[in-house]
Write a structure and sequence with these properties.
547 residues, 3 domains, 12-stranded mixed sheet, 38 strands, elongated
């Protein structure tokens, strides 16, 4: 029995020695208990070669530790854990990473080496608190997961106030940097990249926090994802700012999430630039209070090669709002997208089988999900040169109708820059959804039914948007209503009583329908390590936040 106990403690000593030989770790301590229960303290301290520091912040010669900054000016603390500092380009640093992150202490800073390195499996960190994983810079530290055995590159499971910064993750099997069930997530100055043809990419999501709280995503670069470059799902209190999403199927996507601000980003050359979705059957039933503002959203004309929900996004889309309510879209520059600048689509556009909704989606509707889109406010966006070559299966019949000489105007139209399907509103106004339309407000509380507060009310408003097209030859910047919303208008129904597309056209400027004003949505706030981020936090003086 004594032998087993000593061997158990000895294994810890060996582990500490192994770690110390692979990384530069300050203050590795192991306690061994003898027969008389006295304790012998074995302390192994390895001075930091990379920064000359030790656990007390001074070098072996008593001098203060060197100041090492990343390319984003983040300073490594003197007690940082340096992983494989002597590694050279092409080395596999998987084991060193796993050892460094084994039962990591709270508030640790783990420094990845400078250069290009192989990683052969998912690096999973469970229940970390205050952890920062950093490289030397977004272009200076690159982790190549080609041939890895895991789906994710870096994966955080649970934890609080975790940070990934100043490194790039390349060629993962599915997801770049993922966080699940965390409270406090900060991704900054990272890159998630899949090079080569998007149609051949194995990548799913680049940055991927899900079922988490207090998420700050800033100054990142996402490229080549076959799903979403930057994705936040089933989460709350979110700020996504100052990122670049390029050549993904979806540039930036907010899904079934509440209180999200997406601003000062650039989305270009994706299939669709910025998306907000609510999908049925997820653990968090619905989202809302999503603000999309002051973004550059242009030339998102890449072919949509995605699978699953994202595959419905028409290529050539600037902004797509799909079955989500409570969204404000304003002060964006939305230009040169081949299908349209802004598309508002209810779930009926994806699944028109209304009769079977109670069976197919009854449970998730009872949880508050709605196939409708409500309370969308689009204002003060600069819109130019959109709709020159519309495409996509979601809008296939709509495109054919608007470009047909047999539409309601009697002549082909420039495809609308802002397009609203209208089908859910028409069906609701006609009383066709009473069998599954959830109860809202006080009635829901009285009945014990969940409801989505963002969907209480029907207003969809577009005003103050700016026609940025040059000259009279580009004067047609239109708003399109696919289905008329008045159930008493016979033009909205076919001979058998089914809805028929009216394909109404109105000028975007001085428009007559969708011409209303809504209350502005409140800003989202992220609390991370006791500090507030966002328009009511560290960005109080940011011009975009005053718009």
């Amino acid at each position: 029995m004594k032998l087993n106990k000593n061997m158990s403690h000895l294994s810890k000593v060996l582990l500490c020695s192994l770690i110390s030989s692979s990384i530069l770790l300050s203050g590795c301590k192991v306690t061994i208990k003898g027969d008389d229960d006295t304790e012998e303290l074995i302390e192994s301290t390895v001075d930091s070669i990379a920064n000359g520091g030790s656990s007390d912040g001074s070098g072996s010669n008593g001098t203060s530790c060197d100041e090492i900054l990343t390319t984003s000016d983040y300073r490594f603390p003197c007690d940082a854990i340096f992983v494989a500092p002597d590694a050279v380009d092409g080395d596999d640093i998987t084991n060193e990473l796993l050892l460094a992150l084994f039962e990591i202490a709270d508030d640790s800073v783990v420094v990845l080496p400078e250069g290009n390195f192989k990683v052969s499996e998912t690096i999973t960190i469970a229940a970390a608190s205050g952890l920062t994983i950093t490289g030397y810079g977004i272009h200076s530290t690159k982790l190549d997961f080609t041939g890895s055995t895991g789906d994710d590159g870096i994966r955080f499971e649970g934890g609080n106030d975790i940070t990934a910064r100043d490194f790039g993750v390349y060629e993962t099997n599915k997801n770049g940097i993922k966080a699940v069930g965390a409270n406090g997530v900060h991704f900054t100055y990272t890159a998630t990249v899949w090079e080569g043809d998007l149609a051949e990419s194995q990548g799913a999501y680049g940055l991927y926090p899900v079922q988490s709280q207090n998420i700050l995503i800033e100054h990142n670069y996402a490229y080549g994802s076959a799903d979403a470059g930057i994705y936040v799902g089933q989460s709350n209190n979110i700020v996504v700012r100052d990122n670049v999403a390029k050549y993904n199927v979806a540039g930036i996507e907010i899904e079934n999430s509440n209180m999200a601000d997406v601003y000062n980003n650039t989305a270009l050359n994706n299939a669709a630039g910025i998306l907000a979705f609510d999908l049925p059957g997820l653990e968090q039933a619905y989202g809302g209070n999503v603000r999309i503002f002051n973004n550059e959203i242009y030339a998102n004309n890449t072919e949509n090669v995605g699978h699953g929900a994202v595959s419905i996004a028409p290529p050539g889309t600037g902004v797509l709002i799909f079955a989500v309510s409570g969204v404000e879209i304003y002060n964006n520059n939305i230009t040169d997208n081949d299908t349209s600048a802004i598309e508002l689509a209810s779930f009926f556009m994806s699944d028109p089988d209304v009769a079977n909704y109670p069976v197919n989606y009854g449970a998730t509707i009872a949880d508050g999900w709605s196939p409708m889109i409500k309370n969308i406010y689009m204002h003060d966006n600069l819109i130019a040169r959109n709709g020159d070559n519309p495409a996509g299966t979601l809008l296939e019949e709509v495109i054919a109708g608007y470009t047909s000489p047999y539409n309601s105007t009697g002549m082909p139209q420039v495809f609308p820059a802002i397009i609203y399907d209208g089908i859910g509103e028409l069906l609701s106004n006609a009383g066709a959804l009473t069998d599954f339309n959830y109860v809202v407000g006080a009635d829901a509380a009285a009945d014990g039914v969940n409801y989505n507060p963002y969907a209480a009310g029907d207003l969809l408003c577009a005003n103050g948007n700016i026609n940025g097209n040059p000259g009279p030859s580009y004067d047609d910047v239109n708003t399109g209503l696919v289905y008329g919303t008045n159930p008493l208008d016979a033009f909205n129904w076919d001979a058998t009583g089914n809805p028929t597309a009216s394909l109404l056209i109105d000028k975007m400027v001085n428009n007559t329908f969708l011409n209303c004003v809504q209350n502005r949505l409140p800003e989202a706030t992220v609390t991370f390590k006791g500090k507030e981020y966002g328009c009511s936090g560290d960005d109080l003086s940011e011009p975009a936040c005053a718009l």
